[in-house]
Amino acid sequence: MKKIEQLPEATEQALFSLRADDALKHRIFEQAAASGTTGRKSGFFRPAVCLSLLSAAMIAVFVLLSGLGGTGTTVDNDIHTISAGSYRSVSPVHLGDLVDGAEEAAVEETAEEAEEDENETAGPEEEPAEEEAEGENAD
Amino acid sequence: MLFSLNTVEGGIREDSASSAAEEPLSFDRLYELYATDVLRVAYYYLGDRQRAEDVTQDVFVKLIVTKPALVPGKEKAWLLKVALNRCRDLWRGAWFRKVVLGHPAFELFPAEDEVGRIADSAALAEAVNQLPQEFKEVVLLHYYQGYGVTEIAEMLEIAEGTVSSRLSRARSRLQKTMKGDNPE
Predict the structure, then answer these.
(1) Which of A139, B46, B79, B90 is buried most, with the most CB atoms less than 10 Å from its CB?
(2) What are the chain A neighbours of B171 within 8 Å (beta carbons)?
(3) What total of structural domains would you count in chain A?
(4) How far is B135 from chain A (nearest CA, A)?
(5) What's the domain range around A130?
(6) ipTM of the assembly?
């Protein structure tokens, strides 16, 4: 039985053919060459790529947000106007359909319609008063 | 390819290959002198030839890429230290726990004409391989590579007393293993 002090001799016998050969050396040179080039690439290009991607993402988000809240987009908001005393609501006006000057026209049109409605509502109540006046004149 | 060398500061035993001239050793010379030692230490540690070759490859690639300032006489110590660190990383790795721990057989690589005459050597090598990692490190560095307690403590970055204690306990375990007792 060998003693621990004889480990070098025992290792030489037990692991005799386990040696670092030329094939391993060749692999070392190949990996060193590869890691040398890729190392330089990663050291320089990786931050640049990250910054570019980050910038592109920020620009995309900015464009998206400003596009949603911007004036160039037609938003289909309805304006419901109900005049005092009116029994029905005025037909909705679509902001998206408005062009320059059309908004004022639409407001005037809405006001006229409201006046007509008021006249129609108040019309039947005034007739008896007129009839009474005519009767008095006849007398 | 040459490596720059610093002045010897003492305290570490010089390897015979570079102590006399104190000239930078070429990569080829370092590989020729120490690669097999690194490979075998890694093999003792991991018990897997392919992994041991990978560790050896990593160590010498690091030597090429990082171009460390090796102190004359400490080249082998640097190589073994890097190798042991790499072995520890692999040992802790999930792959190793799953794949290798299930196949603990320690394969031998004897010379063809000595296959039938290495029973004692094989038993000792297998007993060393079965030691726990912390014992295996100090045994390999002391009994296989010939480093002293102070040098081992410096290489493994542990106290000298710890090295001595581990060596003593490792010897005890080895004796029990060689006698056929269960050290656990």
Answers:
(1) B79
(2) 4
(3) 2
(4) 13
(5) 78-138
(6) 0.78
Considering chain B, what percentage of its residues have pLDDT values greater than 90? 54
**Alpha-carbon span A35 to A43, nearest angstrom:** 11
Q: In A77-110, which positions are buried (b, 16+ CB within 10 angstroms) versus exposed (e)?
A: eeeebebeebeeebeebeeeeeeeeeeeebeeee
Specify whether A90 is located in the same domain as A60: no
Confirm whether B110 is domain-assigned. Answer: no
A31 contacts on B by Cβ (under 8 Å): 57, 61
Tokens coding B172: 């005890």
pLDDT tens for each residue of A40-49: 545 555 677 8
Containing structural domain, residue B17: 1-105
Residues B5 and B67 in one domain: yes
**Residue B71 contacts residue B8 (beta carbons within 8 Å):** yes
Q: Give the CA-trace dihedral at B50, B54, B56, B57, to 10 degrees.
A: 130
Q: The tokens of B138 are what?
A: 């100090």
- What's the pLDDT tens digit per position in B115-126? 777 888 888 999
Mark whether A83 and A58 lie in a shared domain: no
Judgement on whether residues A90 and A114 belong to the same structural domain of the protein:
yes
Distance CA(B141)–CA(B158), nearest Å, equals 14
On whether residue B111 sits in a domain, the answer given is no
What is the least distance, in Å, from the CA of A44 to any CA of chain B?
17
